[in-house]
Description:
Blueprint (H helix, E strand, L loop, with lengths): L1 H10 L1 H7 L2 H24 L7 H8 L6 H19 L2 H5 L2 H13 L12 H20 L8 H12 L3 H20 L1 H23 L4 E7 L3 H11 L4 E7 L6 E10 L3 H11 L4 E7 L19
Antiparallel strand pairs: 1-3, 1-4, 2-3
Helix pairs in contact: 2-13, 3-7, 3-8, 4-5, 4-10, 5-7, 5-9, 8-11, 9-10, 10-11, 12-13
Amino acid sequence: MGLFKRKLVDEDILGIIEKKDIIKRYIMFTAGIFIYAIAYNVFFLKYNLVYGGTGGLATILQEYIDPSITILLFSFIMFVITYIFLDKKSAMNTLFGMIILPIFVKLTAGFEIDIPNDDLMLIAICGAVIAAFGNGLAGKTGFSSGGMDALVHLIEVKFKVPYGKAFSTVNGLIVICGGFKFGWRTLLYALIIIYIMSIVADKVILGISSNKTFFIVTQEEDKVKEYIHKNLSRALTVLDAHGGFTNGKKKVIMLVIPTNEYYKAKEGILEIDPNAFFTICDSYQVYNAFNKNQKEDNNGIY
């Protein structure tokens, strides 16, 4: 039995998580992408509001190529690059989203909402809230639509650039290009959109920070550490602790991860040890982060 459990931790935990509530997650993901597509067509594309991402790139190029085609082509290119240079599983995780997003963008192209054309502030705020709700709903499922997120992840892994910096740089360049194309007034509205979307989407997923810190107390310490090492691209720290009343010695695993990896971390821990005790906190700034490919330091804490 022990050997079987060991093999399960080594090979099947992530697979179990990915299959868990699969139909419900696909429905939620599809609904989130559909909501985002409506917001994109009604509020962003129509009024040339470039906020970054594949949709922002498609808005810039809409005079030359249909936005749905731009989104599909760029997402397909990033799918192939991810498949070749990162890993097949990450690429396949974006396949469904890569297909349905351009389809929904095309299907919702004729949607109209009666909003005064001269009230760009109202348009930007409404669009940002609705789009962020859709993104957050989709993000809670652990799936991705690929596109610009795949490019950011590629830069993070291959060039060792922190995720936040890579995300800001890539999307910032798209927003600046939108400013040159449509005027700097739209760029200012784009900044408002980005700010609102970052808050609302994170709030829908969990909290408002870009990172989460886990403090984990478990009877399956080695299995949890092995799962984190093999399936999540983050380091961990093991802390010595003792019970406040019993004075019994305990080990506490501290793990800091991006919010978009929250689902895999939480469900993986519970799959290994349903009785594990852990808390999850917002982490607003993370310095000197290490990934799983780096060796332990002299103190052995990473």
